[in-house]
Amino acid sequence: TYHIYNPQNVGWDLYAVSAYCSTWDGNKPLAWRRKYGWTAFCGPVGPRGRDSCGKCLRVTNTGTGAQTTVRIVDQCSNGGLDLDVNVFRQLDTDGRGNQRGHLIVNYEFVNCADNMYVLASPVDIE
Length: 126
Prior knowledge:
Layout: E1 2-3, H1 22-25, H2 30-34, E2 37-41, E3 56-61, E4 67-75, E5 81-84, H3 85-91, H4 96-100, E6 105-110
Parallel strand pairs: 1-5, 2-4
Antiparallel strand pairs: 2-5, 3-4, 3-6
């Protein structure tokens, strides 16, 4: 299913949407909060509650193969994912998810690569 977070309309503010993970991730840098689309997570496999906050999932529409990476910012109770509506639309490339009111997806936990920009400068060692 989908959730209308519309993070771009609230400055990617986790507090503004009352996201469960805002307690731990609400003050993360803007670049961190906007790097990936948002989702609530309550899937059958993986960490729950605080342990899931900030983790990333690669989500694949099983019908079309459309794929994207999302960040967990909230929890839910439907036994799956509540994707931000923008992410839902991105994955719903054939419109069937909108018709049914849900998508059938696979997900896997992936590295968010949040520390991939490590700056280093040359050092002269004698």
